[in-house]
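Data deposition worksheet. Section B asks for the primary sequence of the deposited chain exactly as it was used as input, without tags or linkers unless they were present during the calculation. Section C holds the resulting structure in token form. Section D is free text for depositor observations; keep each observation to a single sentence. Incomplete worksheets are returned to the depositor.
Section A, Depositor: J.P.
Section B:
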Amino acid sequence: MGHARGRHRREPQVDGRTILNRNVVDDHPFDTPLSGGLRFVAENIAWVAGPWAVASVSVWLVVPAVVIVIGVPSVFSTPGDKKLIVVPTPGPLRLLIELALYGVAVGAMWIRWPGGIAVAASAVVAAAVITGIPRMRWLLSGAPVDSTQDPPGS
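Section C:
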């Protein structure tokens, strides 16, 4: 345990139990380095594959696609889930945004890239979903923050 800005920092807890295996960057009790890392890779797949897939329809759609797949998840965040909140968003809506990104990642890969790469990308997205189930449940429940601890990322 250390100090953050001159005050004692409490360890994250769920149901009164200290969470030892936590994401040290965010202090998020429902996110692990593995689930966060897989989510990051899946989002990057969507960022690349989504605009690439719409380019086959029209190159004019690439810029709006980039703005949507990168901008929407960056702007709309759930308090207690991210360090920087631009537009506070309810947990279920944030989950819907992330599931849409996963859909873009998988769908766009199957549209534009070879089968082997699409299979690998689909496996990454599936792993992100499976490892992210605790966080998804938390988001779906409205993302309550335990009032006995500092908010994640503070």
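Section D:
The mean pLDDT is 81.
Residues 1 and 131 are 27 Å apart (CA to CA).
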